[in-house]
Structure to design on (363 residues):
């Protein structure tokens, strides 16, 4: 986030590196795949109350080390942010670019809260089922008990409630009320936090307030221009308002920042954009990609089953229906229409949707 504030740098989103976590990366290959000139590598080693952080800047085209440094400190969240700032400034010096002034993150008062938050955030970003979402929420609630002023925890907690509301069979407005309360508290606690504004935007989107959501997500992008999730949310609201050309540009920005974006919501939304533009084959390809990344029943599975059934691909349609019934045995064709209506504008929903879902095997 610090480096992304420089007007001289395009910083690829950090989530784009997740696919390289379990294998030694070939940095030249990484550079080609992500379209980057430089890569930052690092490691963190912790022994009780001491932490050692190493970082190095590497030219991905030549595999030459440009800069490296090690930091060993007493374990403290405040020290972690100091080191983060120091690393960013040394990298900027190595690249000979100028960083804009920025306001440091609020120093976290409780190291345990910081550890729990990182665990909760990891679970949340990989929450492909309701159980993981609830597990993330329990950790976030514990974080707030330990550190009530931790803005990021309030923001992510808001989105867990918003996501539960969107996917639950009943429209429990209390869930959405809680989501809004936590999101507004997050922004109030840290108005300079890009994630806080994004979380507020997500809640506004689910409330159907897309103009307000664009305002919030625009502030998030102003604070962190490389925030791929924010560009995704921007494109979703632009699409819901019928501004398809703007949505396409926002989605293009996401893929520039993060060519291997890990969130199924992005690929599902981009598939929807293709569908609205009449590009059905491209839509199906991206909906399939989203389908393989999450077990939650969303627009991708509903529209895939409908599209396959209407095209005479009955076995493919029935396979998706079985996935939906396994995840939610009480799933029905009528319920499928209701779920899609939470994500799509009414005029986008095919008139034959319920009939095709029944034909594919949903009761």
């Amino acid at each position: 986030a610090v480096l992304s504030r420089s007007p001289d740098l395009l910083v690829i989103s950090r989530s784009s590196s997740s696919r390289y976590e379990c294998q030694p990366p070939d940095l030249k290959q990484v550079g080609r795949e992500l379209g980057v000139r430089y890569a930052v590598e690092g490691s963190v080693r912790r022994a009780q109350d001491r932490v050692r952080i190493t970082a190095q800047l590497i030219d991905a085209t030549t595999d030459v080390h440009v800069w490296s440094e090690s930091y060993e400190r007493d374990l403290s969240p405040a020290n972690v942010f100091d080191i983060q700032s120091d690393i960013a400034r040394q990298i900027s010096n190595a690249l000979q670019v100028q960083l804009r002034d920025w306001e440091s993150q609020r120093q976290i008062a409780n190291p345990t809260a910081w550890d729990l938050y990182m665990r909760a955030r990891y679970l949340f970003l990989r929450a492909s089922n309701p159980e993981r979402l609830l597990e993330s929420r329990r950790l976030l609630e514990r974080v707030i008990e330990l550190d009530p002023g931790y803005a990021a925890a309030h923001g992510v907690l808001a989105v867990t409630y918003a996501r539960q509301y969107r996917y639950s069979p009943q429209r429990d407005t209390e869930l959405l009320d809680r989501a809004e309360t936590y999101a507004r508290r997050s922004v109030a606690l840290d108005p300079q936090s890009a994630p806080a504004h994004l979380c507020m935007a997500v809640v506004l989107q689910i409330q159907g307030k897309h103009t307000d959501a664009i305002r919030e997500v625009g502030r998030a992008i102003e604070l962190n221009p490389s925030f791929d999730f924010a560009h995704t949310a921007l494109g979703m609201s632009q699409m819901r308002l019928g501004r398809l050309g703007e949505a396409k540009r926002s989605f293009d920005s996401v893929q520039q920042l993060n060519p291997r974006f890990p969130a199924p919501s992005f690929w599902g939304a981009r598939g929807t954009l293709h569908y609205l533009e009449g590009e059905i084959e491209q839509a199906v390809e991206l909906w399939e990609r989203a389908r393989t990344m999450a077990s939650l029943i969303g627009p991708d599975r509903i529209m895939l089953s409908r599209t396959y059934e209407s095209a005479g691909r009955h076995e493919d349609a029935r396979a998706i229906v079985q996935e939906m019934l396994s995840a939610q045995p009480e799933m029905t064709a009528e319920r499928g229409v209701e779920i899609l209506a939470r994500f799509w504008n009414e005029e986008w929903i095919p008139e034959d949707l319920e009939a095709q879902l029944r034909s594919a095997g949903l009761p």
Q: What stands out?
A: The longest strand covers residues 64-74. The mean pLDDT is 84.
